[in-house]
Design brief:
Elements: H1 2-6, H2 11-19, H3 37-43, E1 47-52, H4 60-69, E2 72-75, H5 81-84, H6 94-105, E3 109-117, H7 123-126, H8 130-147, E4 154-159, H9 182-193, E5 198-203, H10 211-226, E6 232-235, E7 238-239, H11 249-257, E8 262-270, H12 274-290, E9 294-299, H13 325-334, E10 360-369, E11 372-381, E12 389-392, E13 400-405, E14 408-410, E15 413-415, E16 428-436, E17 445-448
Parallel strand pairs: 1-2, 1-9, 2-3, 3-4, 4-5, 5-6, 6-8, 7-8, 8-9
Antiparallel strand pairs: 10-11, 11-16, 12-15, 12-17, 13-16, 14-15
Helix pairs in contact: 8-9, 11-12, 12-13
Bound molecules: ligand G3I.
């Protein structure tokens, strides 16, 4: 009875089921609903991302949720002016590169945030003005966008340049005081440096139609009319009791899209809990899905404890990494109202892996690109629990380790850190490292400590 089942399916699967009857059973009932945020969004031609802090990547709960649930990342602070150019002309990309390389190794998009902003400027820039500041800003945009050329899906080129309240004016700032054209100059510099990246203007309190969003709208309209390169508008969407999800959210996204730019929800968080919070998240997702040019949604952190507004519990996972009702509502909305079924449990392998005895074994999974790699190493305990381990890796000549997570590196020898030294008999844990050159091909050694 394949055809009657097909009538309950989403249209894209209906066609497939009719052409390939044998696959019908795969799509019966609700089994076609994807079971992670990123996969569900991808089915809708969107991304679902999160802000990421580099220093949290060694937290396994955080890293696992990031790996499995999201298909886009935004460095939360690591690409800002104070982080990337701490002294004038000296650029520092370590933490941002860590996030970008992890995202690339996991096939995720990267949203760059933020090239030009009145806040989080390094002290040297805060003390500049006039032509010196304008030139420094252009150089900064050019250098950072060039460093990440080809790796960024969308850049927040200019962030939060309009004033709050009813004035519709530009926000006063040192950048604004260099001249009203500073925004378009920043966009032109970004386009010249990375022609493939989408260039966004990003702001908050612009989520509904109001004086501030009207002013941004007029700027985008003017930029489009004059050929200033702008591709997208980011709506931060930080919601709480004082600033709730506006009733005209979707209509506001749509009016910007009608100007010929993409729209993106860039920093979503909604303070609250339970059903009310869940309903608001679902409404945001439905609004984005209803606007063809809405590319995707980024939440501003993974767990409530990761949020800049942690006390408002505004995110999709609780402090322990458990899914909240808001998560389920978001996933269901991404799936067009379909509640996903529990993913099938993995069938255990029919062959027993070789017994490593009382020690441990290690295996490597590599993600390589021309000139670099990310290695994920799995340490498996033998018949006795481990209380510490050391893995030895052989690197081809010319290769070097540049960054390690979930382990302490000493050259090409990696030892456990405080939280992952204890591994139950037969159990396993993972760590990773990133490098330049060609990644290791030999099986690593593993010793219990
Ligand atoms: O890294 C230092 C640490 O060494 C120090 O011990 C600690 C003490 O306060 O501060 C740490 O830096 C903090 C940083 O977050 C990392 O946690 C800064 O003080 C703090 O100011 C910074 O806050 C960030 C904020 O932007 C700054 O404006 C938040 O993490 C970040 O979520 C927030 O993000 C902004 C978006 O960029 C733009 N839209 C609004 C959004 C929320 O404010």
């Amino acid at each position: 009875m394949l055809v009657p089942k097909g009538f309950g399916m989403k249209p894209r699967f209906l066609a497939l089921a009719l052409v390939i009857p044998v696959a019908g059973v795969l799509f019966a009932g609700t089994a076609d609903a994807a079971t992670t945020l990123g996969a569900s969004a991808a089915e809708q031609g969107r991304y679902f991302g999160t802000a990421v802090a580099a220093y949290k990547l060694s937290d396994t709960t955080y890293a696992n949720l990031l790996r499995t649930e999201f298909n886009s990342v935004t460095p939360e602070n690591e690409m800002k002016w104070d982080a990337t150019e701490p002294s004038q002309g000296t650029f520092s990309y370590g933490s941002a590169d860590q996030i970008v390389n992890l995202a690339k190794s996991q096939g995720k998009k990267v949203r760059g945030h933020a090239l030009a902003w009145h806040s989080q400027q390094p002290p040297w820039a805060q003390s500049l003005s006039g032509t010196a500041l304008r030139n420094a800003m252009v150089n900064h945009v050019t250098q950072v966008a060039t460093h990440y050329k080809g790796q960024i899906d969308s850049w927040d080129v200019v962030n939060e340049a309009f004033a709050d309240g009813g004035s519709g004016a530009r926000r006063d700032s040192n950048l604004q005081r260099t001249g009203n054209d500073w925004i378009e100059v920043a966009f032109r510099a970004a386009r010249a440096a990375d022609p493939a990246a989408k260039l966004c203007y990003n702001d908050y309190n612009t989520d509904g139609q109001n004086a501030k969003s009207n002013a941004v709208y007029a700027m985008v309209q003017d930029f489009k009319a004059r050929g200033v390169p702008i591709d997208c508008v980011g709506f931060q969407s930080h919601f709480n009791a004082q600033s709730p999800l506006p009733a005209d959210y979707q209509a506001n996204l749509q009016r910007f899209a009608n100007l010929g730019v993409d729209v993106q929800i860039t920093e979503l968080d909604i303070e609250g809990s339970g059903t009310a919070q869940a309903n608001s998240y679902a409404a945001v997702v439905r609004a984005c899905l209803a606007v063809t040019r809405c590319n995707g949604i980024t939440v501003w952190g993974i767990r409530d404890s990761d949020s800049w507004r942690a006390s408002g519990t505004p995110l999709l996972f609780d402090g322990s990494g458990n899914k909240k009702p808001a998560y389920t509502a978001t996933l269901t909305a991404l799936n067009g109202g379909t509640t996903p079924t529990t993913p099938p449990t993995t069938t255990p392998p029919t062959t027993t892996p070789p017994d490593p005895g009382a020690g441990c074994t290690a295996s490597i999974t590599l993600n390589q690109w021309n000139g670099g790699f990310v290695a994920t190493v799995r340490v498996t305990a033998g018949s006795t629990a481990l209380s510490g381990w050391t893995v030895g890796v052989t690197l081809p000549s010319g290769a070097a380790v540049t960054n390690t997570w979930n382990a302490q590196a000493s050259g090409t020898s990696f030892s456990n850190v405080g939280y992952n030294g204890t591994v139950a008999a037969g159990g396993s844990t993972e760590f990773g490292f990133q490098g330049t050159g060609t990644g290791p091909s030999a099986t690593p050694t593993c010793a219990a400590r």
